[in-house]
Design goal:
The complex is a heterodimer. Chain A is an alpha+beta fold. Helices cover 42% and strands 20% of the residues of chain A. Chain B is globular, with a radius of gyration of 16 Å. Classes of the chains: A alpha+beta, B alpha/beta. The structure holds guanosine-5'-triphosphate and magnesium ion (MG).
C-alpha cells in the first residue's frame, strides 16, 4: 500500500507556504491538506471555527465515496468534490494518490476562481511529496531513543463511582 | 500507514473496528467516548448512521494521548458498517488502516455471520492479515445464548499465530478498554520495532 512519505521540516514549510499563498490569492477562509484515509496533515488559515480533525475524516470519506460513485457510472475523470453552502462552501481537490486539498471559502466567492488557484497549489504539494519520497524511499523515523509510555493502560476507564459524581 | 510527521513530532494511527452487523462496534466507540479519562484530548464522536442507528458509512472518534514521550499521538477510531450490503463503504473505511479490532457476536446464531465477516475483512484488506496488528473481541458475553469462548477461538482465532482476544460486554463497557489498550500496544510496538530495524 502506498504510504505517506516521511515529512521533515522542509516539507511542512513548503506545504504551509503553499496553503498560505492559496489563501492570500483566493481569499479563501482556510485550507487543509489531508490524507485520503482521514488524517489531517496540515491546516492553514482561520481554522478556529471549524473542527478540522472531524472535517478531515468526513471530507476524505466523502471524496472517496464520490469517487466510487463516479466509478459506478463509468466516470473515470474525477478529481474534486464541491459543496455549496450558504455562508461557507467547500472544495475537496485531488492532490495525488495519497492526499487531498480541502479549501473552505465564503460562499460569495466564485468556485471557479478557487479551483483555478487550487490547481496551482495541488501541483506544488504533489511535487513536494515526490521530493519527500525520493529523499528517503523507506527511511523510518529514528525512534530508538524514544521511550514508550506504559501502553498497558494508556486509555483508562473512568471509575463508575466517579461517573455518578459527575 | 501510521503518519509520522517529524517536523511537528506527531504520530497518527488509524484503528478500525470490524465485524458483523449489530455485533457492538459502534457501542465500543460510544463507551470509549463516554468513559475515557486522562487523555490529552478527546474529540466528538461522529456517527453516519441510518435512522435506526445502524452504521451507514462509519463512526469516527479522535483521541489524543501521550503514548510516546515527546510525541503527540493521535488515535483515530473508526467503525465500519456491518451490514453485508455496505461492502464498498467498508473498503473505503479500511483505507490507510494501521490496526484492527475484530468484534464478534458471541450468540450461537451469529457464528456464520462472524466467520463471513472475518473472511470479508481478509478480502477487503489490501494487505495480508498477518502483516497488520489485530485483536479479537468476543462481545455480548452477557447474553444467555453465548457460545463458549473456546469455540469462538476455534472458529476465529485459529491461525499459526494466535492473536490476543477479549471477552466483552460492550453495552456495560466491560472489555472495551482492555481491547483498545491491547491493539494500541501491538501497534506502537510494531511501529517502534520497525523504526529500530530501519535505523539499524
Ligand atoms: N446484550 C448486549 N447487547 C449489546 C452489547 N453490545 C452492544 N449491544 C447492543 O447491540 C445492538 C447493536 O449495537 P451496535 O454497536 O449498534 O452494533 P454495530 O456493530 O455498530 O452494528 P452495525 O453498525 O449495523 O454494523 C445495540 O442495541 C447495542 O445496545 C453487549 O455486550 N451485550
Ligand atoms: Mg455501527
Amino acid at each position: 500500500m502506498l504510504s505517506l512519505p516521511q515529512l521533515i521540516e522542509e516539507d511542512v514549510a513548503v506545504l504551509d507556504a503553499a496553503l498560505g499563498d492559496l489563501i492570500t490569492r483566493s481569499e479563501a477562509t482556510a485550507a487543509l491538506v489531508i490524507d485520503k484515509g482521514g488524517p489531517l496533515i496540515i491546516e492553514r488559515g482561520n481554522c478556529d471555527d471549524f473542527d478540522t480533525t472531524t472535517m478531515a475524516a468526513l471530507a476524505a470519506g466523502s471524496y472517496c465515496a464520490n469517487q466510487a460513485i463516479a466509478g459506478l457510472v463509468g466516470e473515470s475523470d474525477f478529481s474534486s468534490v464541491y459543496q455549496q453552502g450558504v455562508t461557507h462552501s467547500l472544495l475537496v481537490q485531488n492532490v495525488d494518490d495519497q492526499l487531498l486539498l480541502v479549501v473552505i471559502f465564503r460562499a460569495s466567492l466564485s468556485v471557479g476562481a478557487i479551483k483555478y488557484f487550487a490547481a496551482g497549489t495541488t501541483q506544488l504539494i504533489a511535487n513536494q511529496m515526490v521530493r519527500a519520497r525520493e529523499r528517503a524511499p523507506d527511511e523510518g523515523m529514528d525512534l530508538v531513543e524514544l521511550n514508550l509510555a506504559d501502553t498497558s493502560s494508556l486509555f483508562q476507564r473512568r471509575e463508575p463511582a466517579q461517573q455518578r459524581a459527575v | 500507514m501510521a503518519i509520522i510527521n517529524q517536523a511537528t513530532r506527531e504520530l497518527q494511527v488509524k484503528i478500525v473496528y470490524y465485524g458483523p452487523a449489530k455485533c457492538g462496534k459502534t457501542t465500543n466507540l460510544e463507551q470509549v467516548h463516554a468513559n475515557v479519562q486522562n487523555v490529552q484530548e478527546k474529540g466528538k464522536l461522529v456517527s453516519l448512521a441510518t435512522s435506526s442507528d445502524r452504521t451507514l458509512f462509519f463512526d469516527f472518534l479522535p483521541i489524543e494521548a501521550m503514548a510516546i514521550k515527546g510525541f503527540k499521538t493521535k488515535f483515530q477510531l473508526y467503525t465500519v458498517p456491518g451490514q453485508v450490503i455496505y461492502n464498498t463503504t467498508r473498503q473505503l473505511v479500511l483505507r490507510g488502516v494501521d490496526g484492527i479490532v475484530f468484534a464478534a457476536d458471541s450468540q450461537w446464531d451469529k457464528m456464520q455471520e462472524n466467520v463471513e465477516s472475518f473472511q470479508n475483512l481478509e478480502e477487503n484488506l489490501k494487505l495480508n492479515l498477518a502483516d497488520i496488528p489485530y485483536v479479537i473481541q468476543y462481545n455480548k458475553r452477557d447474553l444467555p445464548g453465548a457460545a463458549p469462548v473456546d469455540y469462538l477461538e476455534y472458529l476465529l482465532n485459529n491461525r499459526d499465530v494466535q492473536v490476543p482476544s477479549f471477552e466483552a460486554c460492550a453495552s456495560k463497557c466491560e472489555g472495551v478498554f482492555e481491547t483498545l489498550n491491547m491493539i494500541t500496544r501491538l501497534l506502537l510496538h510494531k511501529f517502534i520495532n520497525e523504526s529500530q530495524r530501519k535505523a539499524a
